[in-house]
Design brief:
170 residues; mainly alpha; 51% helix; globular; binds iron/sulfur cluster
Length: 170
């Protein structure tokens, strides 16, 4: 629901703090998750995730959550599913080109990210959506990634729009 979604953006900083605690807790549970089996847990965890994030963010269960980079405004609510900023069609009143009664998801993302200053990495370049992950839990994905980092399979640093801007200047 739009009102909850906007509440989440207005409270992005507090939600981010809460998420950091949550992330630490689920990461600590990794051995248990591994013992039970990631695939066995996939369905029940996805149901819980869908319920909570659906209510708070209108989550579409893309499976690769970007909320911590987008000021708690889910990019999948953009009718064009844009993951790296708005299209050129944002209206003068900051409403969506496709849905004129909805504020642009990316205008909201910018507002939320300003509240999360120092936390949100809105300038990080997001990967394209992998539709094979649709409906899957991004929480379990986070646990997997933390585990992979611990095992030394560290993912390459995320590219940032600042890097590209720097390249253009050089
Ligand atoms: S980015 Fe993906 S996982 Fe995160 S709230 Fe949006 S649809 Fe859900």
């Amino acid at each position: 629901m739009l009102a909850f979604r906007h509440w989440s953006v207005r409270n992005a900083k507090g939600l981010m703090r809460l998420y950091r605690v949550f992330e630490g807790t689920i990461a600590a549970c990794e051995p248990i998750v591994r013992a039970i089996g990631y695939e066995r847990l996939e369905k029940p965890v996805a149901v819980v995730e869908r319920g909570i994030k659906g209510a708070m963010f209108d989550c579409q269960m893309c499976g690769m959550c970007a909320l911590s980079s987008t000021g708690m405004s889910c990019p999948m609510n953009c009718p064009k599913n844009l993951r790296n900023g708005p299209c050129g069609g944002v209206r003068a009143d900051m409403m969506c080109e496709v849905k004129p009664d909805m504020p642009c998801v990316w205008v909201k993302a910018w507002e939320g990210s300003q509240d999360m200053f120092g936390e949100a990495s809105i300038l990080d370049v997001q990967k394209p959506v992998d539709n094979r992950l649709k409906g899957r839990s991004s929480w379990l994905k986070v646990i997997r990634e933390i585990r992979a980092k611990k095992d030394g399979q560290i993912a390459p640093a995320k590219a940032s729009a600042r890097d590209f801007a720097g390249d253009a200047i050089r």
